[in-house]
Amino acid sequence: MELTQEQFNTYQKEGFLVVPEYFSQLEVENMKGELPALFAEDSPRRVLEKDGDTVRAVHGSHSTNQLFKRLTRHPKIVSPARQILGSQVYVYQFKINAKAAFSGDFWQWHQDFIFWRKQDGLLTPRIMNAMILLDDMNEFNGALFVIPGSHKEGMIDVTSPQLQEINNNLTGDKKQEWLLSFTANLKYSLPQEIVQELALKYGMYAIKAPAGSAVFFDSNIAHASPNNISPFSRSIVIVTYNSVENIPVPVENPRPEFIVSRDYLPVEALSGDALLLPSLI
Amino acid sequence: MELTQEQFNTYQKEGFLVVPEYFSQLEVENMKGELPALFAEDSPRRVLEKDGDTVRAVHGSHSTNQLFKRLTRHPKIVSPARQILGSQVYVYQFKINAKAAFSGDFWQWHQDFIFWRKQDGLLTPRIMNAMILLDDMNEFNGALFVIPGSHKEGMIDVTSPQLQEINNNLTGDKKQEWLLSFTANLKYSLPQEIVQELALKYGMYAIKAPAGSAVFFDSNIAHASPNNISPFSRSIVIVTYNSVENIPVPVENPRPEFIVSRDYLPVEALSGDALLLPSLI
Description:
The structure is a homodimer.
Chain A: H1 5-14, E1 16-19, H2 25-40, E2 46-48, E3 55-59, H3 66-72, H4 75-85, E4 89-97, E5 107-110, H5 113-120, E6 127-133, E7 144-146, H6 161-169, H7 192-202, E8 205-207, E9 214-218, E10 223-225, E11 236-243
Antiparallel strand pairs in A: 1-9, 2-3, 3-4, 4-11, 5-10, 6-9, 6-11, 7-8, 7-10
């Protein structure tokens, strides 16, 4: 279940690849069926919107939920990940971003890799994301904006005044610092001047695709998404695969295991019907 | 410079009409050239974003700025307004909405007429908006979302709990109450259930058009716009025309003249080059 040469080339050139309706409606329904229970669980894995009520994201569900565990081993995403990274891979991170109807807040412009480099000791960007849309992503509900080709710039080492300010405002419990990576005030967001420069250089693209579509994207592509003021929720799952040849170096105060997995065993792919066998779950 | 029969029919049916590139690039440049001075003026006419710094809107500039005064008398918008309202018209309201790059906040779902009815004593919706885009409005910078046909529902009399809450939180200066109509917490926003219902019934449409385009829209069409996280500012001018046969009844605590004009004299149209004669300004 590898990508075609053309798909592979697109990914390399643009830094992302959209595969429309990659998973079936039934597979999507199975996954969506797991969300209410995961969203209802009051746990540090869960990040809320600023309203303190709506679920913004849930982390590490692949270690608690059997269906999502199976998703991380699905050949439709494991094979492309191996192909792109050129090695065996393991699950580095797993998250569900909800972007709820009427409430889902924006994500600032950022590259993913810098978060992993600065916080987790990941030295090279031999890591990639597989995003699966559990709802249609359209022009109304906060489509993912990317700057195609911006991954070629590599990691842009931002040290934004915002970051300083946020850090200065931090009180007490330093262990909660990782939360800053998942709120609307992103810790390593790209400065406006840089986004403008990148947009002028590369243009901008809004990813719109039906539920079940997959988006593979580079850890250094600049991306963002606006708020969701529509009546349509827009939930996605992101499985981040790292090369087994790119194990992070130890850091002080590592982020929780449910944010950054320290299980470096290569994933083994299941069969293609991995999300369709309820009796096995 | 009236609308064609087809354009007129579209307006009646959908509740809005987009006329792409209605004003020339030069006319747009002339208008944009006026913005910095208007935005810089520290005045009650000016509404800021939540950041307390970025300009969100400026009101009533047609009474202080000669070019925008001329815009309100431009035959390209006065004639359609007369045609749609079936009478002479006067300028009820004038505003510039900035929606600045990276900062412009969203506008909640609402109908315009209820604001005018509840606050200004306007009894019937024989009133309409002419919006002129001073920048391209695209899928990245907070396009205007409308629910086509929703104007046929008439005014939906919302009494939202939010409103109660906002009102309860109001301190001291009651005269500033009008401000609530222009912040992200809209006083008469439509409840989520109603927006969902309308969207299911009528669908949703995102208006995207180049700078210079005009959008005529009904005072009862449900509309909203998301935040602008892009590097592209998206400024618009909205001239609201009321029928001279629809003069509001007196109300207690009327809003300021720069929000609701009490000059009921019919506008007289200028010639088509009204925005191109700098010597006359």
